[in-house]
Design goal:
Helices cover 46% and strands 11% of the residues. The protein is α/β, with parallel strands linked by helices and 403 residues long. The strands form 2 sheets. It has an 8-stranded mixed β-sheet, with helices on both faces. A two-stranded antiparallel sheet has the order 5-10. This is Post-GPI attachment to proteins factor 4.
Length: 403
């Protein structure tokens, strides 16, 4: 008389059939080795990875970053001290045609001494413009000093080489000079003043508003040329209110509120999944294609890209200006913002209608205007500037850290 085997006996029999050569065991070992050993070891010092060991490395890396920034600040100071003054017949800093195509307006205040943030930014732009040569003949550098006091020595030094607008020099301006204005509203008013000064002084086609701790990437001008002359000729991009050139790396993961990233994340799995499946089938000598294996590798690649950090995979897009991506903008932040001239004038009107305060800074105000006014805005990926300032102009920070 035969009896059916118990469920426990059947499970034991199945486990015995598993061997080191079985697909399930191999994929399990690959998962454990990848996510439990190799990726944590390789990515423990990657600042924007989930594998980053914050408690081990953050303090040291922050100090190293500050020391490097001090060195680069000194190098930028020497850069300008060694240049002859622009009072001669040949200007040192690139001067555009009477009506420039693009004005690069650098907004500056006197912040932490020794780092010379604004000198770093202007020296990088100057060097890149010199390298660009006649192709950038329609670009104009413009410094906007919004420091209330007269102690901004770096702005004074740069006035020998770059046209400067000083908001608080002389009489009161149209935006007022009320010392009781909170710092967030003052920042918004300063921003509006610099944007308006750029339009009134040069009447350009575009204004690039850059904060004084946002250093340009090497590819910024070829990418802007491609985006503005090719991509933004498309109808759905042409009337955008602004284009952001920076979004914080810590907010660039796939698991974020931006739904477009979820589609991109699934696309990563759809591309890498079949490729890794083909590799596995080839090297493991498996006879036939397997849908479960492809599903595994799709999820495996999606998990790996997210945990290592989407930011690092975005760097592959720097291979060519045409690979840069333009997606709908999110709220934070404003280190570098590009405005078409008509949109800049609309922005000035919008900003005059809002009041900023703690929790509602100018970046939040600009983002809130998109829905309220029926406007659109976009952000370019990867970033076209690097944020180097660990000392905020709005808040005191006695222990600056990278995160």
């Amino acid at each position: 008389m035969s009896t059916s085997a118990s469920p426990a006996a059947m499970l034991l029999r199945r486990l015995r059939r598993l061997s080191w050569g079985s697909t399930a065991v191999q994929l399990f070992i690959l998962t454990v080795v990848t996510f439990g050993l190799l990726a944590p070891l390789a990515c423990q010092r990657l600042l924007h990875s989930y594998f980053y060991l914050r408690h081990w490395h953050l303090n040291q890396m922050s100090q190293e970053f500050l020391q490097q920034s001090l060195k680069e600040g000194e190098a930028a100071l020497h850069y300008f001290e060694e240049l002859p003054s622009a009072n001669g017949s040949v200007p040192i800093v690139w001067q555009a045609t009477p009506r420039p195509w693009l004005v690069i307006t650098i907004i500056t205040v006197d912040r932490q001494p020794g780092f010379h943030y604004v000198l770093q930014v202007v020296s990088h732009f100057h060097r890149l413009l010199q390298q660009c040569g006649p192709q950038c003949a329609g670009y104009q550098l413009f410094l906007c000093n919004v420091e209330r006091s007269v102690s901004h020595l770096d702005a004074k030094l740069l006035s020998k080489y770059v046209p400067v607008a000083n908001r608080y020099e002389g009489t009161e301006d149209d935006y007022g000079d009320d010392p009781s204005t909170n710092s967030f509203e003052k920042e918004k008013q300063d921003y509006a003043y610099c944007l308006e000064s750029s339009l009134q002084t040069y009447n350009p086609d575009y204004v690039l508003m850059v904060e004084d701790d946002a250093v340009p990437e090497e590819q910024i001008f070829p990418v802007l040329e491609h985006l503005l002359r090719a991509r933004f000729a498309e109808p759905h991009l042409r009337d955008a209110l602004y284009l952001k050139l920076y979004h914080p790396e810590r907010l660039q993961h796939y698991i974020n509120p931006e739904p477009m990233r979820i589609l991109e994340w699934v696309g990563v799995g759809m591309v890498l999944g079949p490729f890794l499946t083909w590799m596995y089938m080839r090297f493991a000598s498996r006879p036939a294609f397997s849908w479960p294996v492809m599903l595994f590798f799709s999820l495996y690649s999606m998990g790996l890209v997210e945990l290592v950090g989407r930011h690092y995979f975005l760097e592959l897009r720097r291979l060519s200006p045409s690979l840069y991506n333009v997606v709908p903008a999110s709220e934070c932040c404003t280190p570098a913002m590009l405005f078409p001239a008509p949109a800049a004038r609309r922005t000035l009107t919008y900003l005059s209608q809002v009041y900023c305060h703690q929790g509602f800074g100018k970046d939040t105000a600009l983002y809130s205007l998109l829905r309220a006014k029926g406007e659109r805005a976009y952000v370019v990926e990867p970033n076209l500037v690097k944020h180097i300032g660990l000392f905020s102009s709005l808040r005191y920070n006695f222990h600056p850290r990278l995160l």
